[in-house]
Amino acid sequence: MPNEPGDMLEPVRALSPGKLEYQNVKHWKHRTVKVVDEFIGIFPPNDCEIWTRTKTGEKIKLIARLTSTGYLWIAAWYCWDGASGPTWDTPDTYRASLFHDVIYQFMRLGVLGPEYKEPADRLLQSTMIIDGVILAAKTEILGNGLTKYFYKAKAATMRKTTPVRAAAWYQAVHMFAGGSCRPGADAINESIIVP
Length: 195
Hints:
- 35% of the residues lie in helices and 16% in strands.
- With 195 residues, it is an alpha+beta fold.
- Strand 4 (48-53) and strand 5 form a beta hairpin.
- Residues 11-16 have low confidence and may be disordered.
């Protein structure tokens, strides 16, 4: 009978020694679930790409591409931090902050030059307005009976405040976000190897 006192037990086999490579994403608030592929109207002279890389520079995974024809492709599971500063995230800001953060990451990595800051800031503003108008239209058709008037009033307020809020966000990033797009280390592109 196996495992009787005095029997030799088979030694536990340890997994082969190895290393784990991962990326720390603790600073990010949002993550895409599907690939994003949209025309954004920013035209670099050549296609640009961001890859996750090992410490030695070996490419691991393509995470973003901006084509010379103005299309932005972002991989599923891309993480970004959304609204920064004295504001908050709302449904009309998610796409805007995603596009803005990716373009700024291209600049931090030196893939795009500083001349792309203004187009990125304007893209933030215009995307907020577009998404705010769509959100207002969706809000307006909600409700029935007495609640219908509440939603119509809410939609009207959204139509008035969205361009103002978008302009305020543009001014904030235009004046204060210069350091966020200067070339230098980029936390999402750094791999950590353990043990």
